[in-house]
Write a structure and sequence with these properties.
CATH class of the largest domain: Alpha Beta
Number of strands: 16
Distance between the termini: 37 Å
Bound molecules: ligand KE4
CATH superfamily of the largest domain: Type I PLP-dependent aspartate aminotransferase-like (Major domain)
Number of domains: 2
Helix content: 25-40%
Length: 427
Amino acid sequence: MNNNSKSLFQQASKYIPGGVNSPVRAFKSVGGDPIFMERAKGSYLYDADGNRYIDYIASWGPMIMGHAWEPVISAVQKAAERSTSFGAPTEMEISLAQLIVENIPNMERIRMVNSGTEATMSAIRLARGFSGKNKFIKFAGNYHGHGDSFLIKAGSGAITLGQPSSPGVTPGTAQDTLLAEYNDLAGVQALVKANPDEIAAIILEPIPGNMGCILPEKGFIEGLRQLCDEENILLIFDEVMTGFRLGFGGAQATLGVEADLVTYGKVIGAGLPVGAYGGREDIMEYVAPNGPVYQAGTLSGNPIAMTAGYTLLKHLLEHPEVYTELAAKCESIERGIRPLLEAKGLPYQINRQGSMISVHFTDTAVRDFDSAQTGDNAHFKNFFHGMLKRGVYLPPSAYESWFLNAALSAEDIDHTLQAAKDSLAEL
Ligand code: KE4
């Protein structure tokens, strides 16, 4: 079997829809065939053809210390020798839960699941069960995983009910999802006014990464917090991407606003399948087996995944300098790319928060989903492939944040900027 990327993709496509186990890996929005990776170490990915790439996807966030980070690898190897799963509680589940509860102020109870999707699905079910209300508000362009309630696009009018954005999502499900525009507090207030006493929760990416990176405007998040307090609505921060990435306290600490429930994923598992949701004790006590809201999972709290997550999070808690160094590296990339884009004369926006950054080829400030869509995707596509052939692997979509890792060296960043200069010259 010729195991180069092209051949592997052909073989994969015989058994797996699209040859991938997650659509965004398929390169559909940038064109070309997905590249099969063989191994990774530190800031480098190595593909099946022996090419090396500087990694700016970090497995879509989790690999914040870089790949094959030794403390996680050795901890996981040791844990695996004691069996990979028990179907019974283990001490490692306490260790990770305790580390988070004792270091995130409003995290009084937390439940582990196996993905960000499970975390957000469970958080919405819990908010509905706790409040007795069915509807919830999400924001266009915010991605919360593939749960039915989230695969919704805007309805016809400004305050109409959502419509399914995927076949298989029923109108019955969609009718309880209300769509608002990120950074539009007045729009949210109008939705709440139009649906009195029917809204269980407002869920959002507090600092979105799924429209590229978008920053909350002054007063927006605080306004949502106040609105939720006034209207008895639960505020849910989906921190699957921002949690333990922007800082140990995530977007809550960055913004100085506390949600009622928070969902986690990605970094919390250090590359193994972990999601979590948690928050106020009175709400979390509604979750089975203590309460009536059912949620379960064969591999939830898996001891190997807990070991990986605990090893990584304990390091991040004890070494806050990891975050300042990551942010500094990200700032140097922003400072380096700006003059290149200016010199090229292309319209562009760069949005950055900590170690999350995105480049948008548009002259419109990118502040919500509509403005994010003004980006010239053809430019992004060509820029992506220009960088790829120069050994820099960006997320294969204009609507993704880039993810930096702590193993990135000054040479990696110099190489990245040189590749950006040469790639832009080809646009
Ligand atoms: P997962 O089910 O993929 O673990 O998490 C879903 C999810 C929930 N909330 C936020 C804010 C997220 O960003 C995600 C997943 N992010 C995408 C990429 N932005 C995962 C990549 C993929 O789907 O393969």
